[in-house]
């Protein structure tokens, strides 16, 4: 029903959220035996605060009209630019996720070595996942806009 480009773009949005979530889960498991502090400290740093950041960054762009319009425009421009539709754009997206993963693992190593929590990279990463998830939701919202629909539905 939709053009191949739109299906690929939509799939890439979903896969990006899934891969980012898997990276987060892996980093959380990796951190449990390495970060200083008891179970309560780890729960706050790995689960509680990140969950709050994730929810805010997911809900705010969907609930606040000006943020929703801005993010929807960004999602549409990403589609028009070819994100998720070419091997180069897919590799670029994966490299960005890999860079974020390396950063979070590096932070775990730093905190493990120094015992000092400078910033909660788990919260920052969770906020990023929330924004990626909001983008995936907005892809489906864009499908319902008549002007967009005309451009993404295959003509028979």
TrEMBL record:
<keyword id="KW-1133">Transmembrane helix</keyword>
<feature type="transmembrane region" description="Helical">
    <location>
        <begin position="88"/>
        <end position="108"/>
    </location>
</feature>
<keyword id="KW-0472">Membrane</keyword>
<protein>
    <submittedName>
        <fullName>Uncharacterized protein</fullName>
    </submittedName>
</protein>
<feature type="transmembrane region" description="Helical">
    <location>
        <begin position="120"/>
        <end position="142"/>
    </location>
</feature>
<feature type="transmembrane region" description="Helical">
    <location>
        <begin position="47"/>
        <end position="67"/>
    </location>
</feature>
<keyword id="KW-0812">Transmembrane</keyword>
